[in-house]
Design a protein that fits this description.
Structural class of chain A: alpha+beta
Distance between the termini of chain B: 43 Å
Structural class of chain B: mainly alpha
Radius of gyration of chain A: 39 Å
Helix content of chain B: over 70%
Protein name (chain A): GPI transamidase component PIG-T
InterPro entries (chain A): PIG-T (IPR007245)
Number of strands of chain A: 26
Order of helices and strands of chain B: HHHHHHHHHHHHHHHHHHHHH
Shape of chain B: globular
Low-confidence stretches of chain B: 1-10, 241-253
Strand content of chain B: under 5%
Pfam families (chain A): Gpi16
Largest sheet of chain A: 11 strands, mixed
Shape of chain A: elongated
Oligomer: heterodimer
Strand content of chain A: 25-35%
Keywords (chain A): Membrane, Signal, Transmembrane, Transmembrane helix
Largest sheet of chain B: none
Organism (chain A): Erythroxylum novogranatense
Helix content of chain A: 25-40%
Chain lengths: 667, 469
């Protein structure tokens, strides 16, 4: 009996224990999933015009958590507070110097359509707040961001500076606010706070490469911060936040080190290494980073060209052998080589080399180098239409904005594929400041250089006309062109406004900026699908490459000179104008009350007769009162004088009454 | 202006129709032959933010795309004008210049205005002559029928380069002028519904004609322009004394303010303004409220929001003045119009038409967005008082000044805006000169009119003395 009891007890204990263990292990797994994570990656890509694109990608994740939501291990606290306080659902802030060259650096890959930004500052945010509070949230957000990033983002607070695009920028039902600051200069004071958000700052990991002189020497420099929060915090649960920080630089490697002859050197792409373009080497990973990788990408066309060259050189080696080839040489063996999953027939896939820097340290720094052996010429893949924008007209009274879309090579392929039914959808989003008074009824559309009715191609249009000193003009358009289109142009006429002298910036004659227009092609999705060898966590950049996002491009910023008044004249203008008004008022009043000598005599006699009439009335009255018949009496001198004196007395009394009333009111 | 008129007056009477037709033909020729690259319609002298047809077309486009025409700050005119002119701006006839229909409408408006001015002038002259005959002054004064002032005024209005510019330059001021003239015509001829209609529409279109209610009421109450009432009274008294009547004022009913037509007018005016408001409310109902409309029409006029240059003086002033004084000066400048209403009405109450002319001149000088169309109106009306203002001083100087300013102003604008060699001050100086010219015109014409009354008084005095002696 006792034995069976004891066995039962042991069994039950075992059961309890085992369940506990199971639960605990589950909890451990959950905790692991909920841990904050940080990834760092760097993508390098040779560009066709002898430049190198370096794209740093840092990602932080703060999972939704109930208890310790206010405390973070890795995630920047400033950002999480921002998200919680201003109900930010999604936000992107970019600081850009220079212009992304869409024709040379490409416009049809995930890097360019996500990271090619207009010059200056662009900020957009989607809020998870009721409609009435969104504007207030936006204003507070701009102030907070301008504090965090040492930039004048707070200028976006004014309602003339931001807009609420409905659908052309990105689908967000009225919760989106979007603002440009094209003239904002971007420099290290904006980069330092941006780096502060990283757990390792620029002390360890890939961010060590961010040597200020070398990155600001680049042709294009864009630092971007993109954050997404998983919806609204509910019942004490703080929402999870996903923060993506990228820095995209186009650098010109110096080609001094090569020892080739001059003639061939001209055609040869410059060889470079991390230390030659950044002046630093990676001395190891950021220890809190979950993964830190460096990628080197060869684009489709480059790979195709290399293949061609190989075929010409009778080199029958398979493409699998990537190192020490006749064409180029990598200084370090890649850990993994990804090849894009081929989707089209005859198209060569792009190739991605992955280098993990976990095994490198101070003693053995990571310094990836690429050395070209033979000259190769290729081009980047471009968006179906290349958009550019320019001003027309001269003088400071009126002008016209023209947006020109020209087809690129990739569009031609598409036209042959699609046939007649093929339609090319183009979304245009343009914000115009209020002092550019656009006449939207003058919208003209030229397709293949012939004027066409707008209705034939315009699918949808949404216009918010500008209100003076209140809101900018917003134009959103969906155009559908046949794929065989060569060029399309949109022209809008405008009048230039005139501002108050206080509204001009200090250098008024420099002109005013019209922020970039956003041209997107929603039918075209940029994605480079690489087969996933590893588990998902290790390749964030690859998963972003795989994400389908619409092709997006920004046009140039336009500079409009506006007429200026004379800034030194306010006092003169005020005094002269007031003098003219005084002249009018005074002389007209003078003319009206002027009497000529004859009239004055007449007036005197009239005064006498009037007082006589009064006297007459009085005597009439008294006569009536006395019940006697009234007799007209001749007005005598004495009576008039007495009347005048009584008038005088009346006047004195009136003035005294006025004075008393004045005194009374003042007290 | 006088000289201009004098040049024309010989034989004008018979040739009126010929001149009218040639004026029309000239307009049509200008509409067809004016080169498009002249951009006549975007000159600040011709079209203001209120009267520009281009802005009206923008408003109509917004309305057609189911937005409020007032949603941007482009259109600031009346919704009724929008529904009248809007369709015409869109309609194109193949091979014809754009906006042809609008231009034709403006030409028609100009011709109707000229005809109304003519018949008004004829009526005024007839009435005035009767009054003078009553005073037995007709032979003594130099007035005779050699000056058909109605014809001259109509031709001055029609042939004035300012009117031509306004009607060819696609601004809506010909229509505004037409309704103002219509109200004065109605009041002169005592067609009360027309007077009320004109006044309500003019006020609705450009707000400033609201002050014309005083001359219109005086016109209806006292009748058209007459010599000072006192003279007639004295005359009446003298006659009564001669005929030894016992009553003092037997002629009184003639000079008493008759309230009947005035109340009639007020009734019509209130009825029509309610009607206009209802029409406006209906036309803006789909897109916005009546309040929005009032804000972007009357509010825009009163707060001088648009600082683009024009021939007035307010734009540069408000572009330069310190922001915290802005409200103060807005009040001061609008008060300048209001302050002069009463003194002028008291002094000139026997000449309501002239009073209306002076009011129109003052408003076109001090209004927030003046254009040459406004000047065209008062210069045309000036012709009506040709006889009375014959002794006006500085008329040649004024004529030269007008010519000079109208030549210099486009040049200065071009130097400043297009070539960039000039400065805002250059253009502002011409605007100042123009304001001074208008001030001189107002002051001289008022003093000439008062002097004329003085002359009549002394003449009648002499006459009486002669009679008594």
């Amino acid at each position: 009996m006792a034995a069976t009891l004891s066995r039962r007890w042991v069994l039950s204990l075992f059961l309890v224990l085992s369940t506990e263990i199971v639960f605990r292990s589950k909890a451990v797994v959950e905790e692991q999933r909920r841990e904050e994570e940080f990834y760092e990656e760097l993508l390098l890509r040779p560009l066709p015009d002898r430049k190198v694109l370096a794209h740093f990608h840092f990602e932080s994740r703060a999972p939704p958590s109930a208890s310790n939501g206010r405390h973070h291990h890795l995630f920047p606290k400033a950002i999480s507070q921002l998200v919680q306080k201003f109900h930010v659902k999604e936000m992107e802030l970019s600081f850009t110097q220079g212009r992304w060259n869409y024709e040379r650096w490409g416009g049809f890959d995930p890097v360019s359509s996500r990271n090619a930004k207009p010059p200056g500052i662009e900020l957009w945010a989607v809020f998870d707040a009721p409609q009435g509070e969104i504007d207030a949230c936006w204003k507070n957000l701009t102030h907070a961001l301008s504090g965090i990033f040492c930039a004048s983002i707070n200028f976006l607070e004014s309602s003339t500076m931001y807009s609420a695009p409905e659908w052309s920028f990105r689908p967000a039902s009225g919760n989106l606010r979007h603002g440009f600051l094209p003239r904002e200069a971007v420099c290290t004071e904006n980069l330092t706070p941006w780096l502060k958000l990283l757990p390792c700052r620029d002390k360890a990991g890939l961010s060590v490469l961010l040597d200020r002189p070398s990155i600001y020497r680049g042709f294009y420099h864009s630092q971007r911060l993109h954050l997404t929060s998983n919806g609204h915090a509910e019942g004490g649960m703080y929402s999870g936040i996903f923060l993506e920080q990228t820095l995209t630089i186009a650098l010109q490697p110096s080609s001094r080190g090569t020892s080739l002859s001059y003639s061939s050197e001209r055609n040869l792409q410059p060889s470079w290494s991390l230390s030659s373009i950044f002046g630093r080497k990676v001395t190891g990973r950021c220890v809190v980073a979950k993964s830190s990788n460096v990628y080197l990408q060869f684009e489709r066309d480059l790979v195709a060209q290399l293949k061609n060259l190989e075929n010409h050189g009778m080199n029958n080696k398979s493409f699998g052998n990537y190192l020490s080839k006749t064409d180029y040489e990598l200084s370090i063996n890649p850990d993994v080589v990804y090849q894009e999953e081929a989707k089209g027939q005859g198209k060569s896939p792009s190739v991605l080399y992955e280098f993990s820097i976990e095994k490198y340290s101070d003693s053995q720094p990571f310094d990836l180098g690429l050395k070209w052996k033979i000259p190769v010429i290729w081009s980047c893949q471009q968006a179906p239409l290349h958009g550019s924008r320019f001003l027309m007209g001269s003088g400071n009274e009126r002008g016209a904005i023209a947006i020109l879309l020209r087809s690129t090579a990739s569009n031609e392929d598409l036209g042959t594929n699609g046939g007649d039914e093929c339609k090319l959808q183009v979304d245009i989003f343009q914000v115009v400041p209020w002092y550019i008074k656009v006449y939207y009824h003058t919208l003209q559309l030229f397709v293949d250089e012939k004027p066409k009715a707008t209705g034939d191609f315009m699918e949808k249009i949404h216009i918010v006309p500008s209100k003076d000193k209140i809101s900018p003009g917003v134009m959103e358009m969906v155009l559908k062109f046949p794929c065989s289109i060569k060029s399309a142009a949109i022209k809008l006429e405008f009048d230039k406004g005139f501002l108050h002298i206080d509204e001009y910036p200090p250098d008024a004659n420099q002109g005013f900026d019209i922020p970039s227009a956003v041209i997107s092609f929603p039918d075209f999705q940029t994605s480079i699908p690489f087969p996933n060898h590893d588990n998902k966590n290790s390749s964030n950049l690859l998963s972003i490459f795989q994400e389908r996002s619409p092709v997006l491009s920004y046009t140039e910023v336009l500079l409009v000179p506006l007429t200026t008044p004379d800034f030194s004249m306010p006092y003169n203008v005020i005094t002269i104008t007031c003098t003219v008004f005084a002249l009018y008022f005074g002389s007209l009043l003078n003319v009206l009350r002027r009497r000529v000598g004859e009239e004055e005599r007449f007036l005197k006699s009239k005064a006498i007769s009037e007082s006589g009439q009064l006297h007459m009335l009085l005597s009439k009255l008294s006569a009536k009162l006395r019940g006697k018949a009234w007799e007209p009496s001749q007005p005598s001198c004495s009576s008039t004088s007495s009347m005048i004196s009584s008038k005088l007395v009346m006047k004195v009394i009136l003035v005294a009454a006025f004075a008393v009333a004045w005194k009374y009111y003042l007290d | 202006m006088e000289t201009e008129e004098k040049k024309k007056h010989g034989g004008v009477r018979g040739q009126f129709w010929r001149w009218l037709i040639s004026g029309t033909v000239l307009r049509l020729i200008l509409i067809y032959c004016l080169p498009q690259n002249l951009h006549f319609s975007s000159h600040p002298e011709v079209s203001t933010p209120l009267t520009s047809l281009r802005r009206l077309a923008e408003g109509y486009w917004l309305k057609q795309s189911s937005m409020s025409p007032y949603s941007g700050s482009m259109y600031h005119g009346s919704p009724l004008l929008l529904s009248l002119l809007g369709p015409l701006t869109v309609k194109r006839i193949e091979g014809q210049p754009s906006h042809l229909l609008c231009s034709l409408l403006f030409v028609v408006a100009d011709i109707i205005s000229a005809l109304l001015i003519r018949s008004m002038g004829q009526y005024l002259q007839l009435a005035y002559k009767q009054q003078l005959e009553l005073l037995h002054l007709a032979d003594k004064s130099k007035l005779s029928d050699t000056f058909p002032s109605g014809d001259i005024a109509a031709l001055v209005y029609l042939w004035n380069p300012f009117t031509l510019a306004a009607s060819v330059g696609l601004s809506t001021s010909p229509i505004e002028n037409l309704v103002i003239i219509l109200s004065l015509y109605g009041a002169c001829k005592r067609i009360i519904p027309i007077a009320a209609f004109g006044w309500v529409l003019a006020t609705h279109l450009s707000l400033y004609p609201a002050i014309l209610i005083i001359p219109i009421m005086l016109l209806l109450g006292y009748g058209p322009d007459a010599p000072p009432r006192k003279l007639l009274l004295q005359k009446g008294r003298g006659e009564s004394r001669d005929t030894r009547f016992s009553g003092v004022c037997c002629h009184k009913p003639e000079f008493v303010f008759s309230w009947g037509p005035v109340i009639h007018f007020l009734f019509w005016a209130s009825l029509l303004s309610v009607y206009v408001f209802v029409l406006c409310a209906i036309s803006v109902k789909q897109y916005g409220s009546l309040w929005e409309m009032l804000q972007s029409t009357y509010g825009f006029i009163l707060t001088v929001e648009d600082l683009s240059p024009n021939i007035g003086v307010l734009w540069y002033f408000f572009a330069e003045v310190f922001d915290f004084f802005r409200d103060f000066f807005l009040i001061v400048f609008h008060m300048n119009i209001m302050f002069m209403i009463l003194p002028l009405a008291i002094r000139l109450n026997h000449r309501p038409c002239f009073l209306a002319f002076i009011y129109i001149t003052i408003t076109s000088m001090l209004k927030s967005y003046p254009s040459v169309g406004d000047s065209a109106l008062y210069l045309g009306l000036l012709g009506l008082f040709l006889d009375e203002l014959a002794d006006m001083q500085f008329s040649f100087f004024l004529f030269c000044g007008y010519v000079g300013v109208s030549l210099l102003s486009p040049v200065m604008h071009n130097l400043w805006i297009w070539r960039g060699t000039g400065n805002a001050n250059f253009y502002y100086a011409t605007a100042m000169a123009y304001a001074c010219l208008q001030i001189i015109l107002v002051i001289e014409s008022v003093s000439a009119m008062l002097n004329h009354d003085r002359k009549l008084r002394s003449l009648s005095l002499k006459k009486r003395l002669e009679k008594t002696s």
